Prior knowledge:
Distance between the termini: 128 Å
Number of strands: 13
CATH topology of the largest domain: Rossmann fold
Structural class: alpha/beta
Order of helices and strands: HEEEHHHEHEHHEEHEEHEHHEHHHEE
Helix content: 40-55%
Number of helices: 14
Amino acid sequence: MKTLKEIKNMKKKKGNTTMKKYIAILMAIACAAALLLTGCGQNNDPAPTPDPEPTTRTFTDSLGREVTLPVNLSKIAISGPLAQIVVFAIAPDMMVGIANGWADEAKGLIPDEYYNLPLLGQLYGGKGELNLETLLQSGAEVVIDVGEQKDGMADDLNALQEQTGIPFVHIDCYTGSMGDTYRTLGTLLGKETEGNTMGEYCDKIYNRTNEIAASVKKVNLLYCLGDKGENVIAKGSYHAEIIDLLSNNLAVVESPSSKGTGNEVDIEQILKWNPDVILFAPGSVYATVGEDSAWQGVNAIKNGTYYEVPIGPYNWMGFPPSVQRMLGMMWMAKLLYPEAADYDLYTEVAEYFRLFYHTTLSEDAYNALAANSIGTIEGKTAA
């Protein structure tokens, strides 16, 4: 039989053992928690370095060329006057220069900081070749060509790209797909919001004009230009897109010219066509044709249904054939078919100037632009 002292010692040992077990359990739990927090032990490997952000991207242009560009563009050059007008609308602050000096009529309509940009020249046709030295000094990160595709264009752009080290891209531009042109530019320039806004505007104007054209009997018309007024914009040519859409263009020739100077004819041919309406290009013979005996046999002259196309900053009918064709569509539809074109022309033109030229067009300025283009057709006031 155990003594009282032995019993007490046994209880004391049992208590110590229980306490030791309890402490061990607590230590094990603490260790496990520490291991979970520290990755189950010591790990001195550095945290993985995130992949660097890409600095370049691939853009596929309208020719199917894959062009490597900076991810974020800030300086752009343009290849010609058509691109100048289109790109100016969406990204004026990114332009490092202009292809040609703005027309005199643009003074006061184009903000001064853009009116006086350096001249870079142009890639195709026109008054001067692209000045590669000025281009290289400009810091341009891309050169943008806008317009219709031409034979050998891909080879031309590839050669210039290799020669200068600057990417060149081409974006198609036609009246019916002008909205797509702006959406593509928005993607290229990182200006998707602006591109979508301008694209929707162009779609709206083009679709409305098509609806008007489909609802009327089209007038027999000629578009005449040149010092004698004896050049015409031929049916089916690139420059005749609006004319063909909104009228019966009588200028049917064997080989329609793709140039802005049109096809040269003579007064005898114009008399044979005998249009009911003539649109004269700015600077042609509008001011004198009414007194010229050679033209008096033409219905449009006899009846006073001839007009001068508005200009400012450029010819509204699209010379060069750029986005200002939207102005031409609105003006021509209102002039020829005022009842079908149920809108206020000044309001429409002022909205265009705000959106595409970044300026406010006053009523007085509008009246000056349209001074020679307001008349009557079949007794109805136009414009």
